[in-house]
Amino acid sequence: MRVRDDREKSVDMECRETILKRTQAKSLMAPVAISLLASALLAETPKLSIKTAHGDAQEQQRMQQMERLAKQYDLKTYTITREIVIDRGAINHSSPVLTLNLRFLDNDDLALSAYVHEQGHWVLMERHRADNPALFDDLHRAFPTLEYRRPSGDGELRSSYFHIAICMLEWQAMEELVGPDRARKVIELKQRDHYTDIYALVLSHRERVESILNSHGVKW
Ligand SMILES: [Zn+2]
After folding, report:
1. Coil vs helix vs strand at 100
2. Separation of 165 CA from ligand 1 center, angstroms?
């Protein structure tokens, strides 16, 4: 299990404390200092470590797209792991290293949704390992007839149920990032593409799914 590396974050915090001390010292510059301080303290995406598997032009392009999105949106809440690999031949996956393929080069909202989806897996892996059996039981009890075979599910019974939680987290993240209309469009589009019954279930039983997630404290 990978342990989250917070070193950079703490270095960052030290920088901010230094800024704070300096700005306090220069009280004559108070208005400027306050606005600088405010922007320094604003939440922003932590620095991502994005590598390409082969380094070709399209992988580079996907990497640049991801770097641009990380600047454009505040992904702090939705970044559990900062290590990302772009691999043209991979199926998107979260572990051991979050890996994204070349799909959605031409669609930022879908690219963003792939990112938060894989980070959603890290929410369950990093924060809820002990809760996962009970979470599975509750989801299975609530929705006993979920079809797990592809493309309805992900091909495996247990992980299809966990994908109900992941796809819900994905939708919640997208709503915060791009607003409810664009977020719904993304989820509806994915519902026609893969994990079709899982996305359909999330769309039609949102309240029930959210209440199960809440009962296990599963959130961003
Ligand atoms: Zn997934």
Report:
1. strand
2. 10
